[in-house]
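Hi there,

I know you've been waiting on this one. I reran it after we fixed the sequence typo, so this is the corrected version. Both the input and the resulting structure follow.
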Amino acid sequence: MVTPDISELIAGLSPEKRALLATHLKNKGANPNTFPLSYAQERIWFIQHLDPGSSLYNTPFAVRLNGALDVAALEKAINEVTRRHEILRSVFPLINGEPVQVIRPPQPQALPVRDLRALPESEREKEVLRITVEEGQKPFDLSQEPPARTHLLRLKDDEHVVVRIEHHIISDASSQEIFVREVATLYAAYADGKPSPLPELPLQYADYAVWQRKRLQGEALEQQLDYWKRQLGGNIPLLNLPTYKPRQAVQSYRGAIEMDLFPARLASELAELSRREGVTLFITLLAAFQTLLHRYSNESDIPVGTPILNRNRVEFESLMGFFGNTLVMRTDLSGDPTFRELLRREREVAQGAYANQDVPFEKVVRVAQPERSLSYTPLLQVMFTLQTASEGVPDVAGLTWSPLNIDTGSARFDLMLSIEQTPTEMGVMLQYASDLFTAETSRRMVVHLRNLLEGIARDPGRRLSEFPLLSETERRQILSEWNDTERDYGQHKTLHALLAEQAARTPDAPALTLSGQQLSYGELHARANQLARHLQTLGVKPEVRVGILMERSLEMVISLLAVLKAGGAYVPLDPAYPQDRLAFMLEDSDVPVLLTQQHLLGTLPAHHATVVAVDSAWPRIAQLAADDIESGTTPDNLAYVIYTSGSTGLPKGSMIAHRGIVNRLLWMQEAYGLTPSETVLQKTPFSFDVSVWEFFWPLLVGARLALAVPGGHQDTDYLLRVIREEAVTTLHFVPSMLQVLLEAEGVEQCTSLRRVICSGEALSTELQQRFFARSAAQLHNLYGPTEASVDVTFWECLRGDERPSVPIGRPIANTQIYLLDEHLQPLPVGVAGELYI
């Protein structure tokens, strides 16, 4: 099939020939004013048809007019532009099962005028924005009305704003410029009593739509489609950018913009770099933007869309209508190339895309067959555009015409970066989906883009990972200020020494309770001293590990403290563990001494340790001296060894020295201020590191430690009862168990609770809100690996906080936290990386 040339469509310029041409090109021969849609229009029509009430594709723009205005001349000019461009008076009904565009005859419309002069001057600009956004959000019925409307807002006698709303199916950015330019030209003529100086249009948009459909057929179309199949074949990745909020199931298209100006010097340096490297400034800026996305997402396959005018014939330049197309620039950033190498890759991608730009984006999506979702746009979530600042409209007929930037509160993509070149600077506008990003995160992104461009301009030979993103202020804040956690806790003492000091201050105060049993501080330490002496006779001293295989009991706490007093390090062994896990832990830790209970002796796996059943051996142990005992332990000696779960392989023993756990406990007291009148519930199995602070924090400050019965941590009714009966003020939950507790009846009756501490799992915002709905207590979220003395970060949850996820917070005392990329470079706030402690 021979592709028709555009010249065939403009051969006849007279009205008669124009009518004959329309008849020749008309759709189904039913009406000379009925034409098919262009491919771009067809996609927009179907999207609008699926959601008729949507205003997503309404494109508002506004122009400020300063000077004495002839409203009648302006109205006449707008009506003449509408007469000249048939697309502005077209409707888009469904005929014979297919959407078409039907051109209506010209019908002059009155220009609505809204007078804002009665408002305070400070409120008028806000009202202009409100009206523009409000009008922009009113949907068009494409089948019944031409999708364009204009309003005139009078701010002062000599200041007006023209607000124009056009649906994307009839307009694009170039069309808006044509509209303003032609209205200004016609206004100047009509205001001076002259006729229109504009020549009749040789071609209309409907002619282009027919020509496009006839041209994009056969071999020409297949060749370009084959390119896009190769370029976009396989799985197109969803660009996994760090977002402030999780992606919703259905995209809302709510958005906002962040704007900035980059200096002319930077623009000049980048332009010079582009010339040296043999690329356009567009390619340089696109490569820089993709580098930023790569650094933010840690992904190397970065598809970014870019709109093109698609007015690649002179006949189209003066036409209004939706000509634009979208090209997918899918670039490989793998291997940490230099930026200079990335420019080479980007140039190849751009050359291929532009050589095959005639295929409408709708067809590209069809052949690429991406995974479809209502939560994001197909193929592309990010767009980039570079524009040269338009010359604008010169002052005409005593009026100054200046465009207004309008934030419509919408966004079709996750991100759209628009850069505008001017002789003096680069205007940067980042439009973002406000369901995913915040003003703060988008502002940081713009700052990081500038930092990246500055680095690229200085040395394009550096690798992508080497370019700085952070400003000096950010870098100082992340590396220094947020890690300024130094505290002098006098950490020259061991844990058991500090515990003994507290016991000496309050020997008669209750220390331990369990089901009616009670020990005072004096009794607890006396018994621990006696057991410690016995352990020393068995060879326990600093760095010697002692296994403790017990159910929760008073003997368990005595044994923990006794091992420390003897100089040793305790190794908790949960009797509920499978035999093979216990056997592994006994062999791996190589404990020479094992403390247990009489009823558990028959459950011990094979081992080589000396066994002491503390309960049955107590009459003999009780004969030993009860005063404090010397062990020679230092803060750098081992305090305990807790084994990890083994979920990533064999369990590993985390070896914690006194210095680490003492720092952790003293920080906890400084942060939360537990008082001697309070009670902490110890319910976590002692094979988990949370149990360490449950045991020792209250005993460090003279508070009471209430022990849950064995297995009590799994019984919600029991926990609620013991909280009430023991007047518990502080306890710990992993979030999954907290959720179970909050679903039970009687939570509101636990009025003694002052603080609940969560760790071990991610704490969700939903669970946080549910907690505050049922409890008046504080809620704290902590995080830390066993190897780092229980917790390393902390966060106090706040009632009413609606952030999408609960942070893990900031570092505790004498701890530094760094979030780094794979090249060990610090990352911006909000960007995922690896945590270094």
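Quick highlight: The radius of gyration is 37 Å.

Best,
R. S.
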